[in-house]
Amino acid sequence: MAHKTATASKATQKGNVAGKRLGVKLSHGQGVTVGQIIVRQRGRTFIAGQGVKMGKDFTLYAMDSGRVNFAQYLGRRKRVSVTA
Question: Where in the sequence is the domain holding 39, given as residue range(s)?
Fold first, then answer.
């Protein structure tokens, strides 16, 4: 038998955990330059369209200069593109 009662895991004991700064960084119609981050996300909530690439951590960034465009795509998802 155990001599002590099992306790909660170490991860839950830490009180103040910093946010990851995820979300949309540039909104519809805003100007963007090459390499600028448009969306930081976990998973594929936003899909990369024309002039946009997705990084390995699902970050969407601009490949062209122009204006950001958001459009509905397959239900809950949105397609992000950059137009001149």
Answer: 26-83
